[in-house]
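Researcher: Here's a chain I'd like modeled. Treat it as a single chain, no partners, no ligands.
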Amino acid sequence: MNTSHWPRIAVEARVRQGWSRVRTAFWPVMQAAMAAGVAFWLAHELLGHQAPFFAAVGAWVSLGFSADRDLRRVAELAVGVALGVALGDVVVHVIGTGAWQVAAVLVVSAFIARFIDRGPMLTTQAGVQSIVIVGLPTVAASGGPVGRWTDAVVGGLVALAVAALIPRDVRRRPRAQGRTAVEELAAMLGVLAKGMRTHQPSDIEDALMRGRATEPALAEWQDACAAARDLARVSPAARRHRTELQWLNRSAVRTDRAVRNARVLARRTKATLGTPEHGHDLSTLADIVQRTALAAEDLAAALGSGSEPLRASTTLLVLAEELDPFTLAPDDWQVQSLVLLIRSLVVDLLEASGVDSAQAHEALPEI
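Model: Modeled as a single isolated chain. Structure tokens:
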């Protein structure tokens, strides 16, 4: 079996998903980078510090590169950075630097951070920044004994201002990740349909590889949905989008099931293959799988734009009505088993498009 093309498929999927992440993170990264520059400028020009390293660090760390910037999270990180820098400065000026000083400042910073707030990010950042200060005491040491702490405070305040003043749509990232994940599924189904027509095991293997490569995109989609739901609980501006966020989350779960069923279908198809002359007739199923792929593309477009996936659900309902294994393959039980798998796949996609489970199952012919 020729497997030389597998790395190429995996790399292509990684590249597609990587560009999707870059597009999603573009504006958050630009905002965080500008905030770091502004914080550095403020500390340099207004406070007179020659190298306000921690002003930029505080702004960048607090904002990060994600669009999910609720004020609590940004505040946790900003306070953590400022706390760690302050404790590090105290240790350096009182007891100096060294291995035991690093351990001591970590213990103290962790306990104080846990006392201040339950957030793990605050404790982590307090520890990291205190290590930087104690371990590298000469870095950005300008502005006197509290200079680095005031730099960190400036950075944190700039980050809080950006998080509070720049409008953001919590739906953007789940939408983008959803579109990417469902497009990956559509591509897999397209290759699988090709393999059914050609009876080439290599095409089926390609489909399986594409299915496996979809897992990171699905995981990122579910993570984005979870982060958006958490933000909607505390942000009045995001709360009005809870209905769509719930749909996006349900769609992510159903799409994950659809991908699993598609992979089972591909493995079963590979086991069923013969030659076009002496094997099973899969041409009708190939057409159905291709139409399912097109419906998945429509679903991906609807997810990405936030519109109702009416075209996708209509196509899938029509497909469901045709999935009678005894009509499509009256004398071939192996092909009938493939039809049963396609039925599960179509139901999953119907539910992902917003059709309730009862209606999706009722659309299927009774067997």
